[in-house]
Amino acid sequence: MDSPEPAMGIENTSMAPDTPQTAPTAPTAATTPPVSSPRDFMNTIQIREQSQQKTRIRAVLPSKVIWNGSPDTFEEYQDHIQGHSTQTGAGYLFLAEFQQAYLRDGVDCIHQFPYETRAQFLRDIMTLYGALQTSCRRGVAKALLREHHDTQDGLKAWIALVKKYKADGDPMVRIQKLEMTISVTYHRHFRGGSRRMGPVL
Questions:
Q1: Distance separating alpha carbons of residues 132 and 152, to the nearest angstrom
Q2: 117, 118, 155, 156: which is deepest, by most CB within 10 A?
Q3: Running along the chain, 201 residues long, what does each successive block of 10 average in pLDDT?
Q4: CB–CB of 71/165 below 8 Å?
């Protein structure tokens, strides 16, 4: 008697030769650099966290803010830079305590203050450098900014500017102010001056 044929559409695998089965491969985990010390481990964690942090783009300094490099107008220029940064959320850069910590500890100082993330801080100091670069177009200030061109460190550039121009911090700035003062033509109606000169003795 003939053996019954398999039903249509159903494969008869009872007599099929054995086929080699391959074990499913486990997904490969992302490789991480070897950690040699607890400090390296913490640095690795911080790098991962920073890569996931989103930074904000600060508003651009208005193009009308231009400093002519004169010591007499530096305070007005300083007010523009600091006021704009405060309005855009980066005013912490100009706190004396924060600047001292930055000069002492570098970028790691951000962990001592709850202002911003490390990634945002790095972006803010580069934004500040761009603002200074576009608003300082002449004089010693322009040359000073070029010293920080490779690092784009606007905070260190700003600290150096303030040290040089604020409160006559630099001898050449004091000389420049004196030269500007003696070049002013005074007259008897000059505000704050004397209306008449006494005899020369």
A1: 10
A2: 155
A3: 50 48 52 57 57 82 92 92 97 96 96 92 97 88 91 96 74 52 55 46 40
A4: yes
Give the integer Cα–Cα distance in Å for 198 and 59.
56
**Which residues, at least 6 apart from 118, have a Cβ–Cβ distance to it below 8 Å?**
46, 50, 53, 107, 110, 111
Name the 3-class secondary structure at 178: helix
**155 burial type by CB count under 10 A (0-12 exposed, 13-18 middle, 19+ buried):** buried
- C-alpha–C-alpha distance, residues 201 and 198, integer Å: 9
Side chain identity, residue 127 = T
Model pTM above 0.90: no
Distance between CA 173 and CA 161 in Å, rounded? 11
Q: For 95-123, how does the pLDDT look when each residue is reduced to its tens digit (9 = 90+)?
A: 999 999 999 999 999 999 988 999 999 99
Contact 69, 142 (CB under 8 A): yes
